[in-house]
Design a protein that fits this description.
22 helices; alpha/beta; 580 residues; 47% helix; 15 strands; seven-stranded parallel β-sheet; single chain
């Protein structure tokens, strides 16, 4: 499937801050889920990313579409194709490359099509030039900090006060009435800085303009802007509507736009973005879009010759939006808490070096990378050496002797039951349940509470138990205990076939489909009764022939099975089992 929603730059009719392309992309994800559509979706934009030095500055709506689509790819990997940015003109050569991308079936999922060919998006380390000579940024006069009474805003305010500003304007919705404002004022005035609290919604352009006029009438001009305000709501795309998305965008993106339009002659224009806008974050679709807007706005300002730096932060220690989740939770995601002093030192370097966009995060790649790639490969991080998977030990794809010996002395039915019990037991351990009985055999792992982290843990435990080399997508490809046990049985060869038997693997995948697929009834899929009867007769005859066949007949029957389309097989499943 190809989505052209990203080509529109119009605003949502009911929410000026929300691009219709973003709202439409969220609705598309919801519709595909409702219809159980598993075809990979490619989302298109035009000049939506600046992939080369000659590219025009990308529009903010396209950056937000990319961010939302990346989150969709994390939440629904089975329906994820990728993102493709088109040039102005789609000539025959470009059209051929476009078609090649859709048919390639390769891992690349964030691409820009240009005259030179296809360019792929990568996260790379920012080099620090040892011999760079810069004038350096010296904070002076007045600095305005949005979200100034919050955890991050307070840290920034203290840092700016120590760096030399004379006047700090700290803007938040409650202003001086915010919790901790009195203590913050005392800390700052002790450093010899004048402090003004402003109670203002920065997304309200008129209110912000009036505040700026008052501030600059009474004191030195505003030379530094730090936009650290923002709010987020954890919600999967399936549970997000236009009103909720607009509310999240309003504080971040509308506030940044107003500051951009109302403040021109400044030394530094700093936007606090997030890694969610760079690599995506499950249940953070609207928040990812809001932060991607900041990154795109910084690029636009730089293109106009105006200062701007957008920093996509990881997790800060101390107070802030990430602190509520707890350091332990963030650590399990592979994101270590950064000391504020180190983070602010990195911010100073970024502004000194006139960086437009930058990620500043302390990432434990050995934890983060397996989680990020648990459902499918994510080429975005392949240029980070620490993110590359470690080579597996020699012989790691051989089953462990204990499990093989246990299965070998059982009958076929007993072996299947034992393997299913093993899968359920391992899943119970990962979920923290007291026993395997808490894991229903046919209920999808996602519904049982599995997320990316627990999916990786289950895969690792099954690797340890079986010795098999199993894909990172294991729990997503075989999403119930029954389906996963059938797949493992085929790989282990417990029914007398060689381990890794191709046919048994095919049957395991088919059983996985039986357990999870939702489709229309047979009468809707094949409306002609004669066609349904013919299909049923053919499949039943094929199965009878398989039962009676020797080696040669089995090969012929397999050939006939190969000739059946996926639709034929799904229709047979529906007719045979009364479900799909």
């Amino acid at each position: 499937m190809v989505s052209l929603l990203g080509l529109s730059g119009a605003a949502h009719p009911d929410h000026e801050v929300l691009p219709s392309a973003v709202a439409g992309t969220v609705l598309l994800a919801q519709a595909l889920s409702d219809g159980a559509v598993r075809a990979p979706v490619w989302t298109l934009t035009r000049n939506g990313v600046s992939a080369t030095a000659t590219d025009p500055v990308a529009p903010t709506h396209a950056a937000q579409v990319w961010a939302v689509a990346r989150v969709a790819g994390l939440e629904h990997p089975e329906a994820w194709g990728g993102l493709l940015d088109l040039p102005d003109r789609l000539d025959d050569r470009a059209a051929a490359r476009f078609a090649a991308v859709l048919s390639a079936g390769e891992d690349e999922d964030q691409l820009a099509l240009r005259d030179a060919g296809l360019l792929a998006r990568r996260l790379v380390r920012a080099p620090v030039p040892r011999d760079a000579v810069t004038a350096g940024w010296q904070p002076r006069d007045t600095a305005l900090v949005t979200g100034g009474t919050g955890g991050l805003g307070g840290q920034v305010a203290r840092w700016l006060a120590a760096a030399g500003v004379r006047h700090l304007v700290l803007v938040s919705r409650r202003g001086a009435e915010a919790e901790g404002a009195d203590r913050l004022r005392d800390d700052l005035t002790a450093l010899g800085v004048q402090v003004t609290f402003g109670a203002c919604d920065v997304a309200d352009r008129a209110a912000l303009s009036a505040l700026l006029d008052r501030v600059q009438e009474d004191g030195p001009p505003i030379r530094t802007v730090v936009h650290a305000a923002g709010s987020g709501r954890a919600a999967r795309l399936l549970d997000t509507d236009a009103e909720e998305t607009a509310a999240v965008l309003r504080a971040k993106s509308a506030g940044a736009r107003n500051l951009h339009e109302l403040l021109d002659d400044v030394d530094a224009f700093v936007l606090f973005s997030s890694g969610a806008g760079v690599w995506g974050s499950s249940a953070q679709g609207a928040y990812a879009a809001a932060n991607a807007y900041l990154d795109a706005l910084a690029e636009q300002r730089r293109g106009q010759g105006r200062p701007a730096t957008s920093v996509a932060w990881g997790a800060w220690a101390g107070d802030g939006m990430t602190a509520a989740a707890g350091e332990e939770w963030w650590s399990r995601q592979g994101l270590r808490f950064m000391a504020p002093e180190a983070a602010l030192d990195a911010l100073r370097q970024a502004v000194d070096r006139a960086e437009s966009t930058l990620v500043v995060a302390d990432i434990d790649w050995k934890t983060f990378a397996p989680l990020f790639t648990s459902a499918r490969s994510r080429p975005l991080i392949t240029d980070i050496p620490e993110a590359r998977p470690e080579p597996r030990p020699e012989g790691a794809d051989q089953p462990t002797q204990g499990l093989v010996a246990k299965l070998a002395v059982l009958s076929a039915d007993e072996r299947r039951r034992a393997l299913l019990a093993e899968v359920r037991a391992q899943a119970a351990v990962v979920l923290g349940h007291p026993g395997a009985d808490a894991v229903p055999v046919d209920r999808p792992f996602r519904e049982l509470g599995f997320d990316s982290l627990s999916a990786v843990k289950l895969r690792n435990r099954i690797v340890a138990a079986t010795g098999l080399e199993l894909p990172a997508t294991l729990v997503f490809d075989h999403p119930t205990s029954t389906a996963l046990a059938a797949y493992l049985g085929a790989r282990l060869g417990i029914d007398g076939a060689p381990a890794g038997s191709t046919l048994l693997e095919d049957l395991a995948r088919l059983e996985s489909t039986v357990a999870t697929l939702t489709a229309a009834p047979l009468a809707e899929t094949v409306p002609d009764a004669r066609d349904r009867a013919a299909l049923t007769t053919r499949l039943r005859a094929l199965l009878e022939r398989w039962d009676q066949a020797d080696g040669e007949d089995q090969a012929a029957a397999r050939e006939e099975l190969d000739d059946l389309s996926d639709d034929d097989l799904f229709d047979f499943i529906d007719a045979k089992f009364g479900r799909s």
